[in-house]
Design brief:
The protein is α/β, with parallel strands linked by helices. It folds into two domains: 185 residues, Response regulator (Rossmann fold, 3-Layer(aba) Sandwich); 134 residues, Response regulator (Rossmann fold), CATH 3.40.50. It has a five-stranded mixed beta sheet with strand order 1-4-3-5-6, sandwiched between helices. A three-stranded mixed beta sheet has the order 2-13-7, with helices on one face. α3 links the parallel β3 and β4. The longest helix is centred in the middle third of the chain and has 15 residues. It is globular and about 60 Å long.
């Protein structure tokens, strides 16, 4: 489980006073496999939609920016928070960076956004618990001249300033397509998603279903597992008891996938093809068990934890008067049995997400491995 953020109101002045080392920050950047040293600058990020004029939002610094994090229940969020605080410390014109945690509660997150508005922030970053529920709050903030940058999970409508993240429907389609191929166009599967009602899983599962149209794949059940390995393990155990034959597992997150595979192991059932993202725990499990289970296979599409950095940079560009695209879609990495060893981090904790801009030393300190 992710550690709770102990310093929700984080200012650059504090960073200067304490020093980057005291905050655990490092300037070392680890090369993600296949990319140069600067992961973000070398990543493929596709601009789409209209151009947002920075002239409308230009202000004189120093700036105050809030970040409404929908929940902090897994290690992807741990990396996301760490890397964005590290980025915030680098900008001299960012005076205050205020982080609030929705704790998985949709109503609380809406209230958090309204509270950030009342604190006169210049910009709000947001990972929504529900893309529909936060839409009115972000729209109201945008109307008041606040730069609003949702990221990672889509928000309904257009009532926000700019968005960045992967395309969850496209990712879901690719995962569904891979699973369809791994099963030979036929088989019984179960599906595990993230937080109940979240927009990312909804879009990804819609894409997966489209990819499986016309096949003989039978979906036995879909369950929300909150992107938590332990929770997914419990839910999968119940599904194993209910269904004597499960030939594949579709997941939009590999915490769910790892929990599902461990439940199968606990029930002495064979491991099966499974989808997910770049969670090191699943990569390690696959490496350990692939020889024991011939049908065990992985089809993974990464979810970069540095999306938060891109979102913060977008907000700062607008506040400095620079134009940005309405949407910046990050192209993720495809990880399969053929290339997984390029991504596997055997000496790091299971909780690490390997599509990261953090160094091994930072990740070891962050997860105490």
């Amino acid at each position: 489980m992710e550690k709770k953020n102990e310093s929700p109101h984080y200012s650059r002045r504090q960073a200067i006073k304490l020093g980057a080392a005291a905050l655990g920050f490092s300037t070392v950047v680890r090369a993600f496999p296949g990319l140069a040293d600067d992961v973000i600058s070398k990543a493929k990020i596709v601009p789409t939609g209209e151009t947002v004029s920075g002239a409308k939002y230009k202000k004189n610094g120093p700036f105050r920016i809030g970040f409404s994090n929908g929940f902090s229940g897994n290690t992807w969020r741990t990396e996301c928070l760490y890397t964005v605080k590290k980025e915030a410390a680098r900008h001299k014109d960012l005076a205050d960076f205020i982080i609030v945690d929705g704790q998985g509660d949709i109503a609380k997150q809406v209230n958090d956004i309204e509270n950030l508005v009342s604190q006169n922030v210049d910009a709000i970053l947001c990972i929504p618990n529900s893309g529909s529920a936060v839409a009115p709050a972000l729209r109201d903030a945008t109307k008041q001249g606040i730069v609003t940058v949702p990221f990672n999970l889509p928000v309904d409508g257009e009532g926000w300033t700019a968005y960045t993240g992967t395309d969850p429907q496209k990712k879901g389609f690719e995962l569904g397509k891979w699973l369809r191929g791994a099963l030979g166009d036929s088989g019984k599967i179960v599906a595990l998603g993230g937080l109940p009602g979240n927009s990312y899983t909804a879009a990804a599962w819609a894409g997966a279903q489209k990819a499986m149209e016309g096949s003989k794949i039978q979906v036995l059940a879909f369950r929300d597992a909150s992107w938590e390995e332990d929770r997914a393990k419990v839910i999968m155990a119940d599904l194993i008891a209910a269904y004597p034959e499960i030939e594949g597992v579709w997941c939009d997150g590999s915490q769910d996938a790892a929990g599902a595979m461990k439940a199968l192991l606990g029930a002495k059932r064979p491991l099966v093809p499974v989808t997910g993202d770049d969670y090191n725990g699943l990569l390690k499990l696959y490496d350990q068990q692939k020889a024991n289970y011939p049908k065990f296979d992985i089809g993974l599409v990464s979810e970069p934890s540095w999306e938060s950095v891109v979102a913060l940079r977008i907000a700062l560009k607008l506040l400095r008067g620079e134009d940005v695209p309405k949407r910046q879609i990050i192209e993720p990495q495809l990880i399969t049995s053929e290339n997984y060893k390029n991504y596997l981090r055997p000496d790091l904790a299971d909780g690490v997400f390997v599509d990261t801009d953090l160094s091994d030393d930072e990740l070891k300190a962050l997860f105490k491995s």
